[in-house]
Structure formats: C-alpha cells, structure tokens
Amino acid sequence: MPGPLRAPDRLAFLLALVPYLQDHDTVTVTQVAAHFDVTPERVRDAVTLIAVSGVPGATSQYQHGDLFDIQWDEFELHDRIVLTHLVGIDDSPRFSAREAAALIAGLQYLSALPENADRAAIASLMAKLTRAASAPPTQLLAENSGSADALALIAAAVRADVQVEFDYLNGEGVHEHRFVDPLRMESVDRDWYLRGWCHLRAAVRTFRLDRISQLGVTDRPRSAQTGARLPDRLFEPSAHDLTVLMELPRAALPLLADYLPELVSDTVADQAGGDRCRVRLRLASFHGLKRLVAGLPGIVTVIEPAEARAIVAAWAASGAAHYEADV
Predict the structure, then answer these.
(1) Is 152:114 a contact under the CB 8 Å cutoff?
(2) First and final CA of the chain: distance in angstroms?
(3) Which structural domain, as residue segments, surrounds residue 165?
(4) CA gyration radius for the chain?
(5) CA gap 232, 59 in Å, rounded
(6) Pick from 194, 234, 190, 235: which is nearest to 217 by CA?
(7) Residue 198: which of 177, 176, 179 has the closest Cα?
(8) What is the 3-state secondary structure (H, E, C) of 77-135?
C-alpha cells in the first residue's frame, strides 16, 4: 500500500502528472495510480487541484482560458481523466511542423532496421512528436533501407554464431565467393558495411552491402578468429593500394575524409578566388577511383599517376559518347 507523500514528492508527482495526462488522451484513475504507485484517492485529489490551476492572463486575474480543464462528467461518473485545455505547457517552445516531419522521417528509417527491435517505443516517440509540434507535420514516408533484408540475415547469423556466405564484387570488378564470420555492421552516410573475418583472405575485411549478392546463412560455426581485433578505422590502407594525387578546393577537403587524405601542398587561388590544395589518397583500385570522381563531378582533378589520369579521361569520354549518340 503506497504511503503518504512528502511535500517535495507531492510537487514532483504533480509536475510529472500533467505531461503524462497530455500523452494519454483518455486514462483511468486506476491506471494513473498504478503508473505512479500512489493511491487512487491521491490521483483524484491531484486532478482536482490541476483543474483549478493555471497561469493568470494579462489582467493578472484568472479567466476561464487561463485554467486547466477536464471533462468533469467522465471524471466524476466514470473515473476517467480527459484533459480538454492546457495552459503554460502550450507556451513552451515547440518543433515546427517541418522540424517534426524531419524527425519523424528519421525515426521511420530507424524503425526499418532490424537491430531496432523496440519499434513500439519508436512509434510512441513519433506520436509524441506529432502531438507536440506547433502544427500538424507533413505526412512523410521514409523509404525502407534496401539493405534491410541483408541486415536481418547477418543479425540472424550472429545470434546463431555461424558464418555467412555470399558472392562479392570486389574493387576490381571481379565476383568472388566468400565465407565470413560476421563481427560488426557499420554505416557511413547511406552505405552499410559488413566487417568480419574472411576465410578466403584469412584476415579481417570490410564489405559493402550493395556489392553483396546471394547472401545466405550457413551451418558452419564461426571460427576462433571471431575474436580477432577489429581495426579502429573502417577503411585501413593496404600494401596493394593505388596511390593517387588529386587537386581540389580546400573547402571540399572534408568530402574525402573517409579516404584518409594526406595533404601534400597548397596551390594558388582558383579563378573563383578560393584556395586549392593537393592531397594524396590510397584507393583499392582504378574502379574505386572512377566511383570517387563520379561522386564529386567538377570538384576533384586527378594529377598523377599518368595511368590514373588516362583511365579516368577514357572513362569520362566513354560516358560522354553515350550522350552524343542519343542526340
């Protein structure tokens, strides 16, 4: 049986009760008492007090719109609490409709990922954001991650303590069949990566999920190498990497952060008056270099080696030729 509340506890109870009632359109006295571990009588007294509380208006006198209000018939006849008017809380800063819509879209994306099992909590948070916005948020539907099925399979393999197998398109454009002990899933922007012990290479490797096909869970137990130490960085340099010198605006340097650029030198200001710099990158292959240049069109310039310049120029010319053929 809950005991009497001290004065500080009564105040804390009242301060917590109003947001709780705001989050529940209709709730019984018994439910509130069970939630806060107090007696139903304490709840009825608190609700009665709230209903005659408020914030005085400009005249420093309490008018009808300055007080909390409830549906008294529901409260007195059916022991149900329904707030019909709030004060004070409505004056606090709120998310705009656009801000709430952006947050809700992000939560929709997170709820689609398999590791977020408590989708009820996410749904509850989205409902609170909707109610607390200054205006009804725009109805948005975030596109489900295309990697959701792969993430679910890998999570199942980790729980079963077994290997996964798949066909992988490596940086040189070659398909290889791999057996991997999954160790960790990581994301960079919109891309997901599987990190694990590769039995083909006998080492820890990183795999992009969008290059994986025919993914399956095997009955092979994960090896003792499962406890191998993962490198701190997602991308580690290799002795077989291609080293490329590039030039780009200094302001664009953060765009290459994932490639661990080594600053070589500053150059003169460009025609637009901005500073340019040269950096050295390590890439797995020329295929990866073409993907990098395509992702930063007009921003990066390949300086050397000459073979890299020639390959990128030929690739760009080939692409342009397709457009000319369509004209």
Answers:
(1) yes
(2) 84
(3) 148-227
(4) 30
(5) 63
(6) 194
(7) 179
(8) HHCEECEEECCCHHHCCCCCHHHHHHHHHHHHHHHCCCCCCCHHHHHHHHHHHHHHCCC
Is the preceding omega at residue 297 within 30 degrees of 0, hence cis?
no
**178-208 pLDDT tens trace:** 999 998 887 765 678 888 899 998 888 888 8
| pLDDT value, residue 172 | 64
Taking each helix axis as running N to C, give the angle between helix 40-50 and helix 29-36, from 0 to 180 degrees, rounded to the nearest 10.
110
Neighbours of 239 (CB within 10 A): 4
Residue 117 lies in a domain: no
What letter does residue 254 receive in the DSSP assignment? G
Inside any domain, residue 29: yes
Q: What are 114-163's pLDDT values in tens digits?
A: 455 566 777 777 777 777 666 676 665 555 555 678 888 888 898 899 99
* CATH code of the domain containing 293: 3.30.70
Residue 169 sits in a domain whose CATH number is 2.30.30
For 98-112, b where at least 16 C-beta lie within 10 A, e where not — what string? eebbbbbbebbeebb
Alpha-carbon gap, residue 115 to 186, rounded angstroms: 12
pLDDT bin (cut points 50, 70, 90) of residue 167 is: very high
The residue type at 33: A
Report pLDDT for 210. Answer: 84
